[in-house]
Amino acid sequence: MGHLKGELMSQIFNKANIGDLQLDNKIIMAPMCMYKSDNSGKVKDFHKYHYTARALGKIGLIIVEATAIESRGRISNNDLGLWNNEQIKGHKKLVELSHKFGSKIALQIAHAGRKSTVKETTPIAPSKIAFSKNEPFKTPKEISQKMIEKIKRKFLKTALRAKKAGYDAIELHAAHGYLLCEFLSPISNKRDDIYGGSLENRCAFVLETAQLLKKEVDLPLIVRISADEWMDNGWNINDSIYLSKELEKIGVDAIHVSAGGNQETVEQMPKLEPLYQCDYAKQIKEAVNIPVIAVGLITTPKECEEILDKKIADFIALGRELLREPNFMFNAAKQFKYDGYDNPSYLRAY
Q1: What's the CATH number where 215 sits?
Q2: How much is the pLDDT for 9?
Q3: Any domain includes 14
Q4: In sequence order, what are the beta bridge partners of 62?
Q5: H or E element that contains 295
């Protein structure tokens, strides 16, 4: 058990829970697509080394990149999948390696919707509206209510496979313009049935899927959302607060707050600066009683500490910074004079 020395204090090393899952610290590896699989969708050697390096770096929770619930739900032909039982073996290895070095590990389950660029298939979406007129994007097929029911079951089956592989938690991907996110936005969802029109109707697919996972899969459930799509008359932070409250009601264990991704070009692009998405997380944290995860150009231990100190969020997800620096936690320990993260093999680096 580590302790703090001197006058510097830090919260990022504190243990904390998402549902009944206890994490050793408050730093999370954000899911980032690596595009290192092939048409099989299987875990490759790259993934084993990539994620294990972050476990060696003592990241509290590793969230594995968007993993498709069906082959046409991949973003590209090189995405990971867990749509069949043959793919479980590789995921089980990722879990074993992460656990071996002390990190918890979650799987983000996803469907790319209209943003799928898989060569052999036609994408699906809430409405027949392409993400872009440019290649490699295609005009999607509007999904039927019958297919919505099938997709919900595919999310469930993938989550059950993830549990069989040993994952500690599931993240449902409802952000960045992929299928579930597309249903939320009045710009990409022009339906006139029970899944379109009002805010309540547009949220139904996400809520029903999350509720199904909570009912049938005994694992903590995180839902990742895009808090604002940066468009006039589009999905916004007030809508996200409503959705987050409804997700809390059905038992979701944490909200992971990102932004953007549903439109090729936006009308209200924020300035891309450190912590630029954190106000969204703060507003959602003020509205719910479950943990909130902040993400977005967070790159230093000091910034992480500021987020926790100001109660902006409960956990911090790092993306690009963990690509640059798998040993982020060791650097943070040195900066904050915390002696619980010294790996003797790396001491000479400091």
Answers
A1: 3.20.20.70
A2: 62
A3: no
A4: 29, 105
A5: strand 292-295
Query: Residues with Cβ < 8 Å from 70, sequence gap 6 or more?
Result: 81, 83, 111, 151, 154
Is 54 a domain residue?
Answer: yes
What's the pLDDT at 2?
54
Query: For the CA atoms of the chain, what is the radius of gyration?
Result: 20
- Which residues span the domain enclosing 190? 29-293
- In terms of DSSP bridges, do strands 221-226 and 141-142 run parallel, antiparallel, or are they unpaired? unpaired
Q: How many domains does the chain have?
A: 1
Cα–Cα dist 14/12, whole Å: 6
Model confidence pLDDT, tens digit, residues 226-280: 999 999 999 999 999 999 999 999 999 999 999 999 999 999 989 999 999 999 9
- Nearest C-alpha neighbor of 168 from the set 111, 96, 216, 90: 96
Residues of the chain with pLDDT under 50: 1, 4-8
Return the pLDDT at 255: 98
Quick check: is 302 in a domain? Answer: no
Q: What is the pLDDT of residues 132-146, one digit of tens each?
A: 999 999 999 999 999
Q: Is residue 340 part of a domain?
A: no
| Cα separation values, 17 from 5, 55, 220, 239, 242, Å | 25, 18, 10, 26, 24
